[in-house]
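Standup notes
- HV: blocked on the assembly model, inputs below
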Amino acid sequence: MEKLRYERPVIKKLETGMPNKFGLRTEYAPLTHIDGVSVKEMINEYGSPLFVISESTIRSTYKKAKKAFSTRYPKVQFAWSYKTNYISAVCNVFHQEGSWAEVVSGFEYEKALRNGVDGKKIIFNGPDKNQNDLKKAIENESLIHIDHLDELYTIIELTENTEKRAKVAIRINMDTGIYPMWDRFGFNYENGQAWDALNKIMRSSKLELMGLHCHIGTFMLTASAYAVAASKLADLAIGIEQKYNHSIKYIDLGGGFASKNTLKGAYLPGSDTNPSFDDFAEAITSTLLNANFRNNELPLLILETGRALIDDAGFLLGSVIANKRTSQGKRTTILDIGVNILFTAFWYDHKITPAQPFTHYTETTQLFGPLCMNIDVVRDNIDLPLLNKGDHLVVHQVGAYNMTQWMQFITLRPNVVMIDMDGKVHLIRENEKLENINSLERVPEYLKKFEL
Amino acid sequence: MKINKNIAISDSGFVFNPVNGESFSVNPIGAEIISLMKTGQAYDEIEQSLMNKYSVEITTFERDYFDFIGLLKQHNLIDTNEEA
């Protein structure tokens, strides 16, 4: 007689407290395949943990975002935010879709050039651009978004030795009614810093003012703040027109659009509550269309949203290392996924589902990573099926920031694969090996020998 | 190790402790273990009977069984007097 499928015994106390009227569903529906490719087979071939990027999700999300804006406004340009995910294959999907590059360091700038992006289509943001970076950006006619006066003066100095005029914009910070107000980057709108910088640019013959830029915050849960930002930028643009008879080419609203992830402490899941692309687009474009631009000459609208475009396309596959109980009897499960590779576990209650079918019995579990560090908690509380050692799990919506902010700490960083439009799996970043780390180190001769 | 005698368990896995009014839900294997314990079977017998029925390694079952017993203790479903 064939034996029955085993499931470990479990008992759960029935609580009679206040029921949750929203009745959130337990995540026991397994995700066994991503874009038709078996999770188990991918882990067998590329190891666990494993980052998986869905190309089709990137393209469809991009198209949705593009449509939300371009159906409301005639001139729209996206620029891919490199810091969100600068794995070259990922960047190139966005470039194939038509995105320019938005970079915030010399390293990212160089990466965009090597990916084949025309220098004229690179937006160079951030507070740290050294002389060499700026020189290169001026030569390549990249769009330099000035963050502070020291940078402005450096650019003026550099342009003295070249025939080229630097193509610049300034980053503007402002009160849009949200907290915290990001005022550490760029020039302030309300106190006149922005006008001061704009006057300096307009009086220099070697600088060409191309646009105005702002980036009001991150993971914005209200679209209306963008309407305030767009209105203030439009006001500056019209002011420049009137004062200098100069039409700026673009208004760059930056990024910060929330993805559908759920922030820690949120009462409802992000998928139900966070604004959509249409919400953000409506707030921004209706403000710009209603601004009084001369002859109805609308500037190009640039968007640098990163997180909302890539989060959904990223999955992190992992495996159960062990099950334990705390001193209080609470179930804990140790995974091979740690916060060193899943940095966003500090911000979000990630959706995590099993990768194989289970019964409907669940246990409230705390998920730990493999690091010998107390902070390594992937989820504080999650109802999951009765997982066993070796079972696989899928962490959803991890496409943004994890593959850039991950750390080589205690463990080595894993493989990253991309599933293409035809369901073919490509290795797009190899896992780290001890040799990679050791090759960067130098041990002084006298420290090479020791006796124990 | 014995389960409290007055614990009631239904076929659908509903467990009721009349001493303190607490109720629990238990999955089918858990219900089977409790039922076997109620008949006075010891670990070896329970293990034998479940190993014959389910596809599971002995070490896995042993680990899960004692984890389950730990939970029963925590929920005051084990007769500790008997155990002493």
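- HV (later): unblocked. Residues 55-311 of chain A form a domain with the TIM Barrel fold (CATH 3.20.20.10). The longest helix of chain A spans residues 224-244.
- Next: hand off to the docking folks.
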